[in-house]
Design brief:
Layout lengths: L1 H7 L2 H20 L6 H8 L2 H7 L9 H30 L7 H5 L3 E7 L3 H14 L3 E7 L2 E8 L6 H22 L1 E8 L3 E3 L6 E11 L5 E12 L2 E9 L4 E3 L2 E23 L6 E7 L3 E4 L4 E9 L2 E3 L5 E3 L8 E8 L2 E9 L7 E4 L5 E20 L3 H20 L3 E10 L2 E10 L3 H16 L1
Antiparallel strand pairs: 1-21, 2-3, 3-20, 4-19, 5-6, 6-7, 7-8, 9-10, 10-11, 10-19, 12-13, 13-16, 14-15, 16-17, 17-18, 20-21
Helix pairs in contact: 2-5, 3-4, 5-8, 7-10, 8-9
Length: about 450
Amino acid sequence: MKSLIKFFSSVKLAIVLLIIITSASILGTLVPQGRSAAEYAARYGQMSDLMIRIEVTRLYQSWWYIGLLLMFSMNTIVCTLMRLPPKLKKAFQPVLEFEQKKLRSLKIKDQLETNETVEHTKERVKTALFSRRYRIKESTKKSYFFIFAQKKRLGIFGSDVVHLGLLIILAGGIISGMAGFRTTLSIKEGQTLPVPNEDFSLRLDKFETEYYANGSVKDWKSTLTVIDNDKEALSKVVEVNHPLTYKGVVFYQSSYGLHWDNPLVEIHVTDKNDASISEYITLKIGDTAVFSNQRLELHAMSFIPDFVLNERNEVVTRSLEPNNPAVFIKVVKERKEIFSGWLFAKYPDFARMHSQKETGLSFNLANFKAGQYSGIQIARDPGVSLIWAGCIFLMLGFFIAFYWIPSEIRVIIEEQKGRTRIILGGSASKKTESFKQEFEKIIEFIRK
């Protein structure tokens, strides 16, 4: 038991845990949280499997991160409890009887003699201390009279209030990690999706992207509507730093992108044998278009935004960005396939076409257009109120520690050969120069 207390009371342990927790939190900021496995695979490649396995992609809910918070909490509790009893005794049950040599060993001290009686001198000293708002405790032993004066004694507990604030923040983080959730919905305009772990849904009514004059993105906005019990409960335009909150769930605008579920493609058809044939055909994937006097049918079968062949010579997309867009088409004449293959927008000469017979027809992917999706981050943080309360205690603790400086003055009064001798000594944890000036004013008051 003693070894366990010694382990958790270690300052080195606190420093190591702080470094690890801070580093992990930075990693959690850099790595998007709560995305789909496909998004992580597209972004991080083979590393994505390891990241998902060690829960970097849901770091704040991971068992090891919560374990670190629990260890740091235990470390803070043990350190605080071990240092609290001496502080309580010093603040509320100080030793009133003390030796003269200890008083004279203080840096701030003085000694006076007067012809007044001990009682009169005692009242004069107490009046001087009261005028400076000191709390006084008295004791008598034989011919000695002891006065112990304290000021701003609660300042002793500044670091403990900071620790309390940290513990409340850690409790909020642990509760949010264990009972909360954070995920991202990729939602298309007009689409309604159920909110995970909740009994209501979310609809994207409108998505807008604003651009600067140079073409870079300025802002993106989502008009969201919450559907609860088949009724529209709340609507709001959500943008970065302006979330929507409903029943404790917060919806943030976190990202946007292109979705390739049903893109629009434009195919340019020409015939080297007949210059009059030059048609631009626009259709969606899965649709069929008829051209050239209704004799030919063009089928758009599938679309790949970033075409690449994998190790097994299979067609896959390397990313969700249109870096190498390609469309697979099939051309049918009189119910017989005469063309099939891939057309590349950026490399029209590399069309992978298969022709059943020689014709003069040529096909090119002239243009394409995909719809946009809005990335809405959804978060429920049941511990957020505790985190805010902890921050308040943290700030209060720092204020007490740095601005509510405790000080104390000890006085011994004794009668010696018909005269009364006064020995005074004082100390303050900080701002010793200011305390020294106050101490000198008290001495001056007593002298007068």
